[in-house]
TrEMBL record:
Gene Ontology molecular functions: ammonium channel activity
Taxonomic placement: Eukaryota, Metazoa, Chordata, Craniata, Vertebrata
Classification via SUPFAM superfamilies: Ammonium transporter
Pfam families membership: Ammonium_transp (PF00909)
Protein name: RHL protein
Top-level taxonomic group: Eukaryota
Native organism: Platysteira castanea
Cross-referenced PANTHER family: AMMONIUM TRANSPORTER, BLOOD GROUP RH(CE) POLYPEPTIDE-RELATED
GO-annotated biological processes: ammonium homeostasis
Keywords: Membrane, Transmembrane, Transmembrane helix
Domain Ammonium transporter AmtB-like: 46-392
């Protein structure tokens, strides 16, 4: 049967070689790693947090995406390839921003950690096009998305004046990744209704749940690695994740027809608390607020999956392979709204509602950053999806969707 499948020997290896050669040359002239660390923490104390995030993105998301019965190799293998390529690209982009004086200088290890966090957007977007995009398309999509995401963060910092110490610009990673991936997948041809390769099996659900557990365990490190108040970020994230996990089991039994737990519900909703609280993890002073956000995140994920799969996706002809919209997109929107509400309440109480002009400016910054991020993700995602489906990038025929045999031996 090998003759039935396209050979990517003339495209993928040479594209990877070209990229790695370019990265090596750019790192040769890069001044970043020759500079001393200027961050406040020692590299040794920071390395354990970096390793947690690294495990979460590579191992956790790699198995999290194993949702299709014939797409396991592509899910884990391509995720790993995109991460290691994208981290190098992201570090170079950060170095360019420092050279242009758009971004301040930080420690080298912080730069790599920030690059790994940025790659979460790519991992989320990959879940939306999983099984439909070939390796060339995935690599091009990843590099384009990273550059646009860094540009979006720069707009938030320079034009909207989001404070340097506020890692809100980087915590838009879930929002950007989800809606960029949805916009890209909307430009791919819709698979035929009779195609049975785009369904899961108990084995694929088990591997996917394994990845979900790893992402759940390491998510407190993800939310706190760039935070100033690390202890508050870790505790609030854990409480939000714990409540969202408990609520996922409760809502799954309540919403299923026979009262049984559904693995798809658990797979997506247990992470909703971590996504929802990403914006406000270090600023929340009372754990019950984090717990309420975790509960609301789980509710919007499970109820959103019902509504979106029955109404939204058929109307817009979207096939969100891994359900990134209700797993990451909707909780990210909820978290952005919660960040604005909590900012209004906190600043209003601190100033006794006397300085409304300053409060209005803070609201403008938060809402503007949110609107700019989601609109940039949607517009550039649509353009990227159109580019990916040109003949130059060898798009896969719909009959070959969701099949490892097209790429793997």
């Amino acid at each position: 049967m090998p003759s039935r499948y396209r050979n990517f020997r003339c495209s993928v290896p040479w594209l990877i070689l070209l990229l790695e050669g370019s990265f090596c040359l750019l790192f040769l002239v890069s001044f970043y790693f020759s500079s001393p660390d200027v961050d406040g923490c020692s590299p040794c104390s920071f390395y354990s947090e970096f390793q947690d995030v690294n495990h979460m993105v590579i191992f956790g998301f790699g198995f999290f995406l194993v949702v299709l019965r014939r797409c396991g190799f592509s899910s884990t293998g391509f995720n790993f390839l995109l991460i290691v390529l994208g981290v190098q690209c992201s570090v170079l982009v950060e170095d360019l921003l420092i050279f242009l004086r758009v971004q301040r200088r930080e420690g080298a290890l912080q730069s790599v950690a920030k690059a790994v966090v940025s790659m979460t957007a790519v991992a989320i977007s990959t879940g939306a096009v999983l099984g439909k995009a070939n390796p060339v398309q995935l690599i091009v999509m990843s590099l384009v998305e990273l550059i646009i995401f860094c540009a979006s963060r720069c707009i938030n910092r320079t034009l909207l004046q989001v404070p340097w110490w506020d890692h809100l610009t980087l915590m838009h990673v879930h929002l950007f990744g989800a809606y960029f991936g949805l916009a890209v997948t909307s430009r791919f041809p819709e698979p035929p209704p009779g195609l049975d390769k785009n369904r899961s099996t108990p084995k694929s659900n088990l591997f996917s749940m394994l990845g979900t557990v790893f992402v759940w365990v390491f998510w407190p490190s993800f939310n706190s690695i760039l935070a100033v108040l690390k202890k508050e970020a870790v505790l609030n994230t854990y409480f939000a994740l714990a409540v969202s996990a408990v609520a996922a089991f409760m809502l799954s039994a309540l919403t299923s027809k026979d009262g049984k737990f559904r693995m798809t519900h658990i797979h997506s909703a247990v992470l909703a608390g971590g996504v929802t609280i990403s914006y406000t993890a270090e600023s929340i002073q009372h754990p019950w607020i984090a717990m309420i956000l975790g509960l609301l995140g789980s509710v919007i994920t499970i109820l959103g999956s019902h509504c979106l799969q029955r109404c939204f996706n058929p109307a817009f002809k979207l096939q969100d392979t891994s359900g990134v919209h209700f797993t990451f997109g909707l909780p990210a929107v909820l978290g952005a709204v919660a960040a604005v509400v909590l900012r209004v309440v906190k600043e209003g109480i601190d100033t006794q509602w006397s300085n409304l002009s300053s409060l209005g400016y803070l609201i403008f910054v938060d809402v503007g950053a949110f609107c700019q991020t989601i609109s940039t993700a949607l517009v550039t995602g649509l353009i990227t999806g159109l580019i990916l489906n040109t003949k130059l990038l060898k798009p896969v025929h719909v009959s070959k969707y969701f099949d490892d045999q097209f790429y793997w031996e």
